[in-house]
Amino acid sequence: MERSGVVDASSSTHAVLHTLSLGAFDLGEGFWLQRQRLNRKRSLEHGLAMLETAGNLDNLRNAASGGATFRGPVFMDSDVYKWLEAAAWELGRAPDPQLGRRVDEVIAIVAAAQTPDGYINSHVQVTDPSARWADLAHGHELYCIGHLVQAGIAMSRATGDEALLRIAKRAVGCANTIFGDGRRVDVPGHPEIESALVELYRHTGDRTHLQLATFFLDHRGHGLIRTGRFYEPAYYQDRMPVRDSSTIEGHAVRAVYLLSGVVDVYLETGERALLAAAQRQWDDMVEHKQYITGALGSRAGSESFGDPYELPAATAYAETCAAIGSVFWNWRLLLATGESRYADQIEWTLFNAVLCGIGLDGTSFSYENPLSSRGERPRESWFSCACCPPNVMRLLASLPHYVATGDARGVQVHQFATGTLTHGDIGLGVHTGYPWSETVSMEVRGAPEHEWELSLRLPAWCREPAVALNGTAVEPGNRNGYATMTRRWASGDVVVLTLPMPAHCIAGHPFIESTRSSVAVVRGPIVYCIEACDQPHAGADMTLTIDPDAALQSVWRPDLLGGATEVIGAGRAHPNQWNGLYRRFDDLSREHRTIELTAVPYFLWGNRDRGSMNVWIPIEGA
Ligand SMILES: [Zn+2]
After folding, report:
1. Mean pLDDT score of the chain, rounded to an integer?
2. pTM (two decimals)
3. 160 burial level (CB within 10 Å; 0-12, 13-18, 19+)
4. N or C: which end of the chain has fewer CB within 10 A?
5. Alpha carbon of 281 to those of 274, 284, 306, 515, 588: distances in Å?
6. Is 543 or 269 the better-scoring residue by pLDDT?
């Protein structure tokens, strides 16, 4: 049997696109391999050290030994599981005896913590074993099991080691004795297990897992969640039934994790009401509630979406996990519909809302991702609530999964990265300097005798994409935003996709306060920002404005932060004349200096000297 990656929609009845087997896309030297390698070499080791220091592993040890000390938030176990998932995908790609030993040790710690009936949650076991399933709204027991299931499946698929999956199945079995129709009717405060249960169904063929996932969706939004003092039902995604919802609201991570599960259940059952509800919420997100970076979540206090157009820049919450969850959700929507807008979202979110979550050292991480900073530290080595770092690790480790799909008809390329794609007899060598370079070259390295179709995403950000076959411009077909070419391909055929990416300025809707009279610089799929350290001639005490009509120049800088294209524009530096908050306008001097403004990719901000950073730049004279 062919092994799958994160999501196995290879035979999902209602999928329009089908996932490839594990390792079907192998990253080659380039942008993403650089990051995946750093993740393997630095982040994983750092992560394990932090799980030890922060007490995650001790909590599990204490659950096994009867120890009385528990450290950290109630969901500490989930960080261990996310780390295990990341390590699993890495081990599957290439063995590493040392990493393998550490993974075995951690799995042994998890195994020892599990009770004979399959229950596992170190917080409950250590602090009050009688409180099992007592606080479903805040306890995160099912949430943690969801992550355990995903890690167990990753180990099984990537390495063939079933030990963690056995633990996960026993934990699900334990939950199944409690919850379900005819048993306790209740739902968890933090979604996550829904998607995991669908994947367990795909992995094992056992329909009870799909039924339990559907059960949790069916009963959400009926007031079962006993909300705490601080939050409304919307925070827990419990304001209305899943199928009736039209607005994306509440805790952003909960929303996108839940919606991943909603589309997962649709992919297996074909229940249109689920897909329609997810698409309505997606529309609401992109039309009203998403940052230009793709980030989600405007309000820090409740980690939640705000009202329409409520998108503050400096206080943006924009949790890294919410961006990661958005990738998961959009991937499932892409599989369900085949529409390029979902793959566009994955690309934009990866570059601009996920990658900013990890520093170039591989050992510093951000939780919140503001679009403006006055020089605060952008990243930390870990957090007391450390959901984001291991989430970044598992996504980077499994990234090739999201590059392409395929079926008997052919292959569909969704993301552009250097590497090798293998699907049955089809072999494709992809070479590109993307996202800096405008061309993606694909060489057929193996082809079956019959016709097959090569589909390439045409990103919505690109106005004039061009396709050439063996050096000659061609007019391919277009389906759902993909250039499609069907022919009897021969080894050596070369397709070059050219995506012109002139830098340009983007304006925000006038209802968004933080973007008023400002523009952001964008080039291709990359959102830019200005950092103080790049404007030495502006002076430290200057306010900068940009001339949005001046030409923007793109300059490749191999020495800049691991290699990046910077964008240079024209602007002015105005002296800071403010001793208080407000002044008479006619007292302000019009004095200014004309300057060059240098913009760098937003995801790279905060990797040099600390200083101010802004995505939105005030317009000259506005
Ligand atoms: Zn997080």
Report:
1. 96
2. 0.98
3. exposed
4. N
5. 11, 5, 14, 23, 46
6. 269
| Secondary structure, 3-state, 72-109 | CCCCHHHHHHHHHHHHHHHHHHCCCHHHHHHHHHHHHH
541 has a pLDDT exceeding 80: no
Q: Is 544 exposed, middle or buried (0-12, 13-18, 19+ CB in 10 A)?
A: buried
pLDDT of residue 147: 98
Residue type, 354: V
Span from the CA of 350 to the centroid of ligand 1 (angstroms):
15
For residue 388, the one-letter residue type is C
- Residue 383 CA to ligand 1 centre (angstroms): 10
Tens of pLDDT, residue by residue over 558-578, are 999 999 999 999 999 998 888
Ligand 1 centroid to residue 326 C-alpha, Å: 12
Q: What is the mean pLDDT of residues 46-61?
A: 98
From the CA of 19, how far away is ligand 1's center (Å)? 26
Element (DSSP H or E) covering residue 348: helix 340-349
pLDDT at residue 435 tops 70: yes
Q: Please give the distance, rounded to the nearest whole angstrom, from the Cα atom of residue 599 to the centre of ligand 1.
A: 28
Find the 356 Cα to ligand 1 centroid distance in Å: 13
State the average pLDDT over residues 3-29. Answer: 97
How many whole angstroms from 321 Cα to the centroid of ligand 1?
A: 4
Q: How far is the CA of 318 from the centre of ligand 1 (A)?
A: 10
Q: Give the pLDDT mean for 403-427.
A: 97
User: Cα–Cα distance between 13 and 11 in angstroms, integer?
Assistant: 6
Please tell me the distance between residue 306's alpha carbon and the centre of ligand 1 in angstroms.
Answer: 18
Task: Report the C-alpha gap between 281 and 304 in whole angstroms.
Answer: 14
pLDDT band at 166 (very low <50, low <70, confident <90, very high): very high
CA distance 602 to 356: 7
pLDDT in tens, 170-213: 999 999 999 999 999 999 999 999 999 999 999 999 999 999 99
The rounded Å distance from CA 42 to ligand 1 centre is: 19
Do residues 214 and 201 lie in contact, with contact meaning Cβ atoms separated by under 8 Å?
no
pLDDT digits (tens, 9 = 90+) for 366-377: 999 999 999 999
The alpha carbon of 394 and the centre of ligand 1 are apart by a number of angstroms equal to: 13
Rounded Cα distance between 541 and 605, Å, is 20
- CA of 212 relative to ligand 1 center, distance in Å: 26
135 three-state secondary structure: coil
Q: How far is the CA of 386 from the centre of ligand 1 (A)?
A: 7
Q: Phi, psi (5° rounding) for residue 130?
A: -80, -5
Between helix 97-113 and helix 76-93 the angle, nearest 10°, is 150
SS3 of 23-40: the string is CCEEECCCHHHHHHHHHH
Q: Distance of CA 138 to CAs 180, 235, 495, Å?
A: 19, 11, 52
Alpha-carbon distance of 530 to 293, in angstroms, equals: 14
